[in-house]
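Quick one, T. Sequence first:
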Amino acid sequence: MADEPSPYLTATATAYDAVADLYTDLVRDSLDGLPLDRAIVAAFADLVRADGPRPVVEAGCGPGHMTAHLRDLGLDASGVDLSPAFIEIARRDHPGLRFELGSMGALDVRDGSLGGLLSWYSIIHTPPQELPPYLTEFRRVLAPGGHLLIGFFESEGEPVTEFDHRVTAAYRWPIDEMADLLRKEGFTEVARMLREPLEGERFRRGHLLMRAV
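Structure tokens:
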């Protein structure tokens, strides 16, 4: 597990608490105009369901809209987030789902108990040197053969690059480098999807669908 606490965690939680209502309004229906994003999430859900009725966790769930989407795709989904304001909103907006306050680097989940884990742009604020322990934690909680779907901003031929995210410091990653880190932590690649930025978006989006070995 990642050592707790880390200074950037407090800064990230505080920054999102301050904009939680605005952010929730922004992302609530964000998948509606993103058919490719919906497709890879649907593929993730299909693979998890095919492996049997194990639960799924969204690590860094924000206001819970993606956790609810996983539920609508037939998964036993719950969410974890650092931001108390987000957890309050998620519980209010999705009362039938479980949401817990906590770090995605120290999940309150037994070893090998999950069929799937979704990290939907939740690693973007993690300083690069602090990311590997989080990936180790993702592997710890997944059963062998379980699936991880990770979404992030892709660096488009550049090395890991910090950028001016509207909430707090964030990083763009080369998709090959992210895939290599995940392989070192015990994952094998199933599929990847690179999506060019749409109108109103600044950066290419990277998505990796991985299987725990």
